[in-house]
Write a structure and sequence with these properties.
With about 100 residues, the protein is mainly alpha-helical. The protein folds into two domains: about 25 residues; about 60 residues, no CATH class. It has two helices and two strands; from the N terminus they run H-E-E-H. The chain has a two-stranded antiparallel ribbon with strand order 1-2. It starts with a helix and ends in a 5-residue tail after the last helix.
């Protein structure tokens, strides 16, 4: 019976590795000037090519302590604009338009 469990675990592990490889290829496409990332609804960085920006504990951190997408911008106006766009998406609640 252990063999069957090991087989299922091995299959799941293999699929997880394939999924992770696919995610990494999506994030780092190797094209200069293009940056891909994933953020949650509050702008907390979930996936990014530089692990230092990823907020691994965004679920339990209070607002204001999360690594949010505005950290990637230097200009204050750019930071406000990206956070404003996130707020607009939250207010639209997934509606097309």
């Amino acid at each position: 019976m252990k063999f069957a469990g090991l087989s299922v675990f091995s299959t799941l592990s293999f699929r997880a590795v394939l999924l992770w490889k696919s995610v990494l290829e999506t994030i780092d496409i190797g094209q200069e000037g293009i940056t891909s990332l994933f953020v949650d609804y509050n702008g907390a960085i979930q996936l990014y090519r530089d692990r230092n920006y990823i907020d691994f504990a965004s679920i339990i951190k209070p607002e204001g302590q999360k690594n949010t997408v505005d950290l990637l911008f230097e200009d204050r106006q750019d930071k406000q604009q990206i956070l404003g766009m996130l707020q607009m998406l939250k207010q639209r609640n997934g509606e097309d338009g």
